Amino acid sequence: xxxxxxxxxKKLENKTFIQDLEKFYGKNLEYLGLWGAEPTLxxxxxxxxxPNLMEKFPKxxxxxxxxxxxxxxxxxxxxxxxxxxxxxxxxxxxxxSLDGPAFITDVNRIKGAAQKVPENFFYIVKExxxxxxxxxxxxxxxxxxxxxxxxxxxxxxxxxxxDYFDYFETIFQRYKRENKNKKVxxxxxxxxxxxVPGKYTSxxxxxxxxxxxxxxxxxxxxxxxxxx
Length: 228
Description:
By secondary structure, the chain is α/β, with parallel strands linked by helices.
């Protein structure tokens, strides 16, 4: 992975990745997705290439990346400040990896992540309230990934499932209070995905079925909560 990262950095630094894109897409590139281990580690290099990207790909209308949001959030803000200078309409999609409360996220990722990620997110929201984004629209999404161990734990303690959704709902409600920028949106969804790849068995499938059953039971008990 270190070798691959070095190769990626080299292509970003010398901007040969633009030539590669041009070879495949010509002038027709509309969507540019930035992935890797953690895109924010190389986002400054993408920033330097933005003028070249817009010149080479006049149809480009959407740039996206997925982040753990555990790095310095000012990196993302700096990238946004570069994009807002573009005169044409552009959408930035930012997917944030957050698996749920500490009893899930801190187990799956790193201790303290369940607290740190929302802190960094609301720091960005607060700073964006001060910025005129002009022709730039920003869409945030949280992406939760559950392992089978997470699901087994939730099945053993079904009330923890409610804690899971309440955790995200607290974030969504705070966002509604604090966001003042009409160019910034957050998709209020906390639907989890399942870890892949995985060597899943029929027993695992039964466990997943129990999880769905528990979701339906809790949904009926909490039907006044719109997020169910």
